[in-house]
Write a structure and sequence with these properties.
heterodimer; A: alpha+beta; FAD/NAD(P)-binding domain; Alpha-Beta Plaits; Glutaredoxin; 3 domains; 8-stranded mixed sheet; 7-stranded mixed sheet; 28 strands; 27% helix; 27% strand; globular; B: mainly alpha; 3 helices; 63% helix; 0% strand
Chain lengths: 561, 86
């Protein structure tokens, strides 16, 4: 039986603290049970840090919100153990077409190479993504979720944050080491702390119409500039599970947002697009404007901001939910390490350094897309139309057509946690890059490289196919600095044996790079060693194995140097 | 880094100028704007060097400031010109 996650009432019971003056302590409180809050809660719990998640409502998302979840997001959810379900239920896609008028001007493929566990994107209604995360959170002993528990106050002291919570059974207070606001673009926690986002709002309106329709169209993102069925605007069409299609029409700033979402206005627009004989049912309509804004600092004392509470982007490019999940991915291990005493508190400041830069990157992409779709001046429109009119016959102009630069993970290239390269490497796996996946074979089973990394600090050694001398013995090293107050995290080691035609002779627990794709993607030669953070970003690499430099790089990656 | 060449670089300057005007003959201002925009994009791609293009953009814009300044006062040096010659 399928669960209707849009109407599912999440359980509420009176919290034991209600009506008492106790102020119990929690390590981490997450505010907001959306995709970012749920991801963060699950991630922390799986590291071993207990989490309390509070949400003012007792419902998950409904209607049409985020739909495109990127490969990187699926990889993060894979690490948490729920990526496969998302990928299986979602509609996988990687191709798109862009039309100008009635002509196809540009077709793209976001993942032209093979050898990846996950597709470039899946389309999945946000309520499914949240529902699957919710189900997975229920299975984590260290996650406690309290619905209808509304945070109404946050008081900060140097020692802790005290959160005041309102429930149907009265108020109560909790203290915590850290509170993370994943409470959306209108973030009440942000308001309570008197913080403001700044940025710009675009003077345009868009209609979202989700329809249910049986149609045998290719699974691809279709985007039109100035199509015959919607002159002087743009349109977008995208498939979701359950035969639901997302259709998006650009309406212009002067459109009446209330009138335009009435079915009698919406249905003729869709008929113009799909033809008069198309059989469909309208399941969702809304008219939205968008903005690109950011909070100056993602940390305020013991409070952190992640997802829309920290940064808001235009929807073109699917950079909202996807970047929020990356925020959670970045913050979870840092919170855990600091709480465990593996790293000093200032490791948490690198969450800001890394994810504020990422937000700037996402906002820049999304602002440029918005500027292309909604030209702000007459000359901006003239250049846009010049690009479109050149695009069909001029390859260079196709690259300039911007209907949304679809979400790719941020490479944290200037992160203070990286150890700069001392040797030459080709390719994209620079320190700061999210690790590339590739097919592997371990213990006789086909698998994927990223799955072997898990959520740990891992030193990956590439070795030759038949290296009789063998690589250094696999080991888990403990503290990197016994004398210091901070005891570093354990470092795991993984051996990747480059395959050869006869097959590599691998010991148990070694990964074989069956198609040689890892060696290619990481520009690895025998001896090459990569150091990965728990969020599977590269933080250092060398051409040979040296435990001393690995220890130094681990210390650097945890601010313990 | 490559720099924008602002010394004479076209052998047939008068012919080029004529060709530019010919390209716009009989066009409305709106059509001419479109032609210019396409021309800029084609040439920019041909040049293919963002630093050179940025310098050209800056010069194109600040030369306009000079003309405006000239019209308004006798000054011919625009402060925004400073730092152009990196």
């Amino acid at each position: 039986m399928t669960i209707d996650y849009q109407t599912l009432a999440l359980p509420y019971s009176a919290p034991p603290e209600c009506g008492t003056s106790d102020v119990p302590h929690r390590p981490v409180i997450v505010v907001g049970g959306g995709p970012v809050g749920l991801t963060l809660a699950i991630d922390l719990a799986r590291y071993g840090t207990p989490v309390l998640l509070l949400d003012e409502d007792d419902k998950l998302s409904n209607g049409s919100r985020a739909i495109c979840f990127a490969k990187r997001t699926l990889e993060i959810w894979d690490r948490l153990g729920c990526g496969a379900r998302m990928a299986a239920y979602g509609v996988s896609w990687k191709k798109g077409k862009v039309f100008f008028g009635d002509r196809l001007i540009y077709a793209f493929d976001l993942l032209p190479e093979t050898g990846h566990c996950h597709p470039a994107f899946v389309n999945l209604q946000q309520y499914y993504a949240e529902g699957f995360l919710y189900d997975h959170a229920l299975a984590q002993p260290d996650v406690e979720m309290r619905w209808k528990n509304k945070v109404v106050g946050v008081d900060m002291s140097p020692e802790c944050a005290v959160v005041t919570v309102e429930t149907p059974d009265g108020d109560y207070r909790l203290s915590c080491d850290y509170v993370v606001a994943c409470d959306g673009s209108r973030s009440p926690v942000r308001e309570m702390l008197g913080l403001k986002c700044s940025g710009q709002t675009f003077r345009d309106r868009f209609l979202i119409a989700d329809i249910r329709m049986r149609a045998d169209l290719p699974v691809e993102r279709r985007f039109w500039f100035d199509p015959p069925f919607h002159r002087n605007g743009s349109a977008l069409m995208h498939r979701q599970p359950d035969n639901i299609w997302r259709i998006d029409f650009q309406l212009g700033w002067d459109a009446d947002p209330v009138a335009e979402r009435q079915p009698e206005r919406v249905i003729p627009r869709i008929r113009a697009m799909l033809g008069n004989d198309a059989a469909f049912e309208l399941v969702w309509c809304s008219v939205y404007t968008f903005s690109c804004t950011r909070l100056d600092h993602f940390r305020y004392g013991r409070a952190f901001f992640a997802g829309d509470s920290a940064h808001v982007v235009s929807p073109f490019g699917a950079r909202g939910a996807n970047s929020g999940v990356q925020d959670a991915d970045n913050l979870a291990w840092k919170l855990h390490y600091v709480l465990q005493g593996h790293a000093p508190d200032r490791l948490l400041d690198t969450y800001c350094a890394e994810r504020e830069r990422a937000a700037d990157e996402n906002i820049a992409h999304s602002t440029r897309s918005a500027d292309f779709l909604t030209p702000k001046s007459e000359m901006s429109r003239i250049f846009r139309d010049a690009v479109l009119s050149l695009a069909k016959d001029h390859g260079f102009a196709r690259k300039l057509v911007n209907s949304g630069r679809l979400s790719t993970p941020t490479t944290l290239a200037d992160s203070p946690l990286n150890t700069p390269d001392g040797e030459r490497f080709r390719g994209t796996m620079v320190p700061g890059a999210p690790g590339a996946d590739g097919p592997t074979m371990m213990n006789g089973k086909q698998d994927w490289f990223l799955r072997h990394l898990g959520g740990r600090v891992v030193a990956v050694h590439f070795v030759a196919a038949a290296d009789d001398a063998g690589p250094p013995a696999p080991q888990t090293t403990g503290a990197h600095d016994q004398g210091a107050a901070v005891v570093g995290p354990p470092v795991h080691e993984l051996i990747v044996r480059v395959a050869e035609p006869r097959g590599a002779r691998a010991a148990n627990g070694e990964a074989i790079d069956v198609d040689g794709l890892l060696a290619e993607r990481y520009d690895a030669t025998p001896g090459t060693t990569y150091l990965f953070r728990p969020d599977q970003h590269v933080c250092a690499r060398w051409r040979r194995y040296d435990p001393t430099v690995i220890r130094a790089a681990v210390a650097r990656a945890t601010c313990a140097d | 880094m490559a720099r924008l060449n602002i010394e004479p670089n076209i052998e047939f300057g008068d012919e080029l100028y004529q060709a530019l005007l010919d390209a716009h003959r009989d066009l409305t201002l709106e059509q001419s704007h479109a032609v210019n925009a396409r021309l800029i994009l084609l040439l920019a791609n041909h040049i293919g060097d963002l630093a050179v293009l940025r310098e050209a953009l800056q010069r194109a814009r600040s030369a306009g400031d000079d003309a405006h300044a000239d019209a308004c006062s006798s000054s011919s040096i625009s402060p925004s010109n400073e730092g152009v010659n990196r």
